[in-house]
Fold this protein.
Amino acid sequence: MGIPSAPIITKAFKDLAILNAAKRGMPHERICFTQHPVWGKTPDELKVYVNGDDPVNNKPFMKEVVDALTVPLSDDEKKSGMVSVSVGPPTFTDTADNLQDFYLNNGYTDFLPIILPTEERVDAMMKGTSHHPDEVVGKMAAGAYPPWSYTVRHVAASAVMAGCRPEYFPLLLAVASTGIASLFSSTNSFAFAMIVNGPIRDKLEFNYGIGALGPFAQANAAIGRAWTIMSKNLGNGGIPGDTYLGSVGNNLNYNNVVIAENEEASPWDPFHVQRGFKKEENVVSLFRGLGVVPGQVARGSSVNTAPMFDQQMSDLFSTFTGFFGALIIADPLVAVRLHEQGYDTKDKLIAWLYKNTTQTVKDYKSRNYSYLFEYPQALQGVEPFATWYKLPDDAVIPHFPRPSSFNIVVTGGQTNAYPQGANMSYGVSVSIDKWA
Amino acid sequence: MNRRKLLSLLGMSPAILAGESVLAAQGEKKPAPATHSSAAPAKPGTGPAKITTVNPKGMPPQIQLIPMAPRLDSLDGKTVYLVDTGFHGSDMLLEQIQEWFKTNMPGVTTVFKRKAGPYAQDDPALWKEIKEKGNAVIMAVGH
């Protein structure tokens, strides 16, 4: 802008603010820090913050602010030019034990033992694709930082570390090509999921039967783990206080929610067909959100009454934030029953859920994401938020902004009719075959 | 590259990160003994063999240094925009800063503005307005 500025950050984000300014080319930015948190404080409490000291620099806060705008620039603050950043040599040589420690201590892993990515193993992994080792696969950003780029070889190293087989590699390249990291810098402790469709489910021996979401098949386990290790290495994500800020964290980040759809037992079109792919194509679809909740907790889930899975799901989703969507993870028994009840397409069930999962405007406005993300859009006239914010508090509105907020996938071993619900929104579907 | 090395490269003291939590320091501790030299085959009785592994880290972009805008001689008689990014409590914090200026630097004119869109969205119209009508910016993120 060419105008002096004084950014104010709460002290909890000191490292993030300093490093973000540095990585964006202004390493000496005059950041003023105040106490944390600002959220939920009274005006009198905030007055104490303003009249108190900057808790990082230990100087009067407002003097810091005024100085930031008025003290003449130093030579360092006037610098321009380009700076190259190194991530070290392309290879490391040491004993296996030392390298295990090195990879762990430098944040390359998920803090579980890894398969060391020897040159031989990485070369073997790259035989799983026809793409050149030096081909740039994509770009991945750790939160607000500028994105990093990476090659087939970089992806292969993380794939080896996670315990993947070469035949898994095209799927991992497809995920990497999206640039979507499974570790996100937000304070929200986000979780991520992927849906795998097509004949590759059997070729790679994915489990989509009993315990489909559990640790019962190498493909589900290693591919999910690889996404997290890739996120740490390809885009430099997952460094607490720097590129990761989830306050409580999320156990699902260890290997994410990997769902191979049980296409054969489902009465509906597979997920990738809904997205315009052919049934015989191999496709991976990515989701982001807050986590997964079992359907057994919802009203209508009693086995002593006739199953009311639509009501059960609606009840479950009424606790979700509408900002993220609702991903229904249905055991085939649930899907078949719903089909028998008249929901002969996924879209029919989605239409019912959109219409019948509701909230009052008062409840809507009270939600965190409404204020943070949708109220600003309402001010810009974006629908349906603009209309919702004009309605009286007792007006009843849909719980989710649009029918496309809902998605359905079928998986599981049919040992019982239990659905699960993920407060997750759909991101993208990409071809795996393109990376074979 | 670890965070301390990055700051050193950009002319900053890594000590600015001193006092960080143990968790925040993860990912940069214990410099490696590993090198990129050729693997030395172990001789019988000399200890475990050395192996060579691939660095899995992607390629960071170059950093373009941006000169900071010239500072003002004084804020007296100037217009300072107070920009709320939309994080919870930012507006209330900026109101207190506005009150502070009224009491302690009455010669400063403050203008409160909420940036359009969610917090990460750019707002070029507001930046244009500030450039035309303002002399300085205080931006609060709250949280």
Summary: Chain A has a mean pLDDT of 95.
